[in-house]
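Suppose a colleague, Dr. K., hands you the sequence of a protein chain of 399 amino acids and asks what its three-dimensional shape might be. Before reaching for any lab equipment, you can write down a predicted structure in token form. Begin with the sequence itself:
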Amino acid sequence: MKLNIKRLRERDQYIWNLNGDDSKLKINGTTFRPTSKALGHNLEQAIVKAEELNKQFARFKQGLTPATAYTFKWCIQEFKTNPYSQWNNDRGAILKLTDKAKATYQYSFDWLEKIDDSRFIESDSRKFGKSHVAKLYEILKKGRSGDKVDAKTSAKQVLEHLRSVMTFLKSDELAYPEAINMFTKLGLKQSGNDERNEAFATPQEYKQALDMADSMNKPQIALAIDYAYTTMCRTDYIPLVQWNKNYFKNYLRIVEAKNNSESDFPLYDENGESLCPEFVKRLENAFANKKGLYLIMRKQVANSHGYKAGEYYPYTRRYLGSQIKEVLDACKKAYPEFNQNLVFKSFRKGAISDLQGKTTDKNVMILTRHKDPKVLATNYLNRKDKSKAIAVSKIRNLK
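The predicted structure, expressed as tokens, is then:
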């Protein structure tokens, strides 16, 4: 009889065993025990026992410590080791997690390990209700280091990852008959719903931010702000802009992070006149003094995490955001009228909003690479500017 179950063999009785490298594998200085186990003569019982041993060995290979059944720690381990979960395989319409997605899940799982001195991760998921979810959400909103007050996006992501774990277990009632999913229909909001997401940088605030970045000797940050405002490119893509792929002297190749579409942004007109002189000057100066492949690069101060002091590296989105925040915080102190809610993407939103009052929606859509004119009305019309709202209403013809 041929059995399609890993490490299950039939002799006088069914036997589970490890062969070759698996039997000698050492994790944290120990090998897996047992390397062989008799499973009896009953096929159905042997299959159940073999699958459990497979799971134990899979946990061992990942360095996972034993956990009590149905604790959150155990549930996460089941999710990561079960060959039918989206961690390891496609699940119908649910695709297998990418390595990048797995990294975000693992970030959440590591965070949960530290909450309440590991008491949460060791708690029984079967006794965890909606009121407990609300308490966990309040803890997560304080951020990983506990010094935040409104980290809604991070908190929402962690709960969504827990929901994926419990949804998988709940979907297999034969394997996990006691699993419950208390993370459904939470109606959570993310940090993007606050006033900072609705802030529009005015032309004056744009110039003030550039001047401040230059005065703080942060030319790379000034270039990033200028790039976002002038090209109206989504800010997520700016750290990825490369000289050889996106800069062609007379125009820029703009790639939209949201849909990966491409378009050209002209820098000169047909007569050779610069269309945006200050931006072009800053861009050409950066190209003449480039330190590597990327538009904006930073110099590593000290040896750390594999980075060498004195070498230049591209900005991560997180680090770029922190550097822009420093500039904006300085602006808020220096200029009383400066909008306190401005963030990096406010410059793109402000540029699009300003453009809407000067030309037709068709032209705005071409320059901003949008396909639906309703998006302009919903996301980029600064309703606090009444004169602009009136101007836009005259040229808009939405159906």
